[in-house]
Amino acid sequence: xxxSSLLQADKIHIWHPFTQAKxxxxxxxxxxxxxxSLFDEQGKEYLDLISSWWVNLHGHSHPKIxxxxxxxxxxxxxxxxxxxTHAPAVTLAQKLTALLPASLQRVFxxxxxxxxxxxxxxxxxxxxxxxxxxxxxxxxxxxxYHGDTFGAMSLGQSSGFYHPFADYLFxxxxxxxxxxxxxxxxxxxxxxxxxxxxxxxxxxxxxxxxALIIEPLVQGAAGMRFCRPAFLEAVVSRxxxxxxxxxxxxxxxxxxxxxxxxxxxxxxxxPDIICLSKGITGGFLPLAVTVTTENIYQNFLDCTFEKxxxxxxxxxxxxxxxxxxxxxxxVFEEEKTFDKIKIIQEIHKGRIAQxxxxxxxQHGRVQGTIAAMDVxxxxxxxxxxxxxxxxxxxxxxxxxxxxxxxxxxxxxxxxTPEQLHQAYDKIEQILHQS
Length: 434
Ligand SMILES: Cc1ncc(COP(=O)(O)O)c(C=O)c1O
Prior knowledge:
- The model has no long low-confidence stretch (mean pLDDT 96).
- A seven-stranded mixed sheet has the order 4-12-11-10-7-5-6, with helices on both faces. It has a four-stranded mixed sheet with strand order 1-2-3-15.
- Strand 13 (361-367) and strand 14 (370-375) form a beta hairpin.
- It is an alpha/beta fold.
- Helix 3 runs antiparallel to helix 10 (319-334).
- 39% of the residues lie in helices and 17% in strands.
- The protein contains 13 helices and 16 strands.
- The radius of gyration is 22 Å and the shape is globular.
- It has two domains: 17-48 and 338-433, Aspartate Aminotransferase, domain 1; 65-333, Type I PLP-dependent aspartate aminotransferase-like (Major domain) (Aspartate Aminotransferase, domain 2, 3-Layer(aba) Sandwich), CATH 3.40.640.
- It binds pyridoxal-5'-phosphate.
- Pyridoxal-5'-phosphate binds at residues 112-114, 117, 145-147, 215, 220-221, 249, 251-252, 277.
- Pyridoxal-5'-phosphate binds next to helix 5.
């Protein structure tokens, strides 16, 4: 099918996610991905600076991951995961638990970030239920995004995305997120305010609170909003002291994004549950895990089915996804990925500082491979700003998708320093013209 007929058929049959089709620009037909780039039918190259919805780690079509998937498909395509198990799932669980904090030992598989969160929330609620303890409330942070299923929407309702479903979302207690950036003189005061809110909530409702959930170090969809490791530590220690389970949503931050393998590695406190997805397969296949402690797992064991965790998906622990994830971890090690991450971080820091000098941006911030900046705008243009910028970036061969006035980069780790510098040159030029 030619590009124009493909697009025609797309317009007739396809409903795209997070898209207002009436006003959106035509979708771009991508036919190939290689390393840090995507290519359309005319051969135009788009540097994938956001790793295709934050999933790609080592580059598109990485041959080692391709090979692992092909090999697995030829051996075992799928088997139901209740009553059966298989080597890719067991090996991946062993590898992940060896990399995660020591107490996180039990892996529950699912297939996307939202379901990893649903699993974490259901696990937390049932953990208390199974013990006959009435703890039913959840604390989340303002602006948080945890996915689009009903539980995840409830946790993310302050994002403002979900008004049509408001009547069906469960009640959640929200704490202000102490968003910070480079040279933020107010950070201590912001953190103190958030912690005071948390203290008050705990004082009023500790006996009812089952769990707290947070995107550690970086709130993604809210606009790459950063918080400090010290804040995270203070939050977790307060929860532990009050018998509140802590869930880290590392769906986006996992697998090196923040400079360490997991964001939780940057502080001393360990969550009770961690959710991983997106980068887990290197961006190849849908897969997610919710990893928890032996203590939580033990609370679901009983002689009757009553206490069992009644959750599962048809494609749970898909062998191809697990094989891709194992290969991605191998590539991570073999290709000295942390060296690449350090180089990306240094380039980000230098170029964001340079951009700040132009006066076009403020609140520049870098955390590992994530760089973000708020573009200064005249409020009259605020609503159309992200669309206009996105189109300008695409025109220049950059896959960037601003969140409101926040322009951010989160490239695959295989991006070369030259590619990244060239991208910043173009961004600077586009912002200068805007
Ligand atoms: C922090 C976080 N949690 C959960 C999700 C939901 O993941 P998925 O889109 O795979 O359902 C996302 C997606 O962007 C995310 O950024």
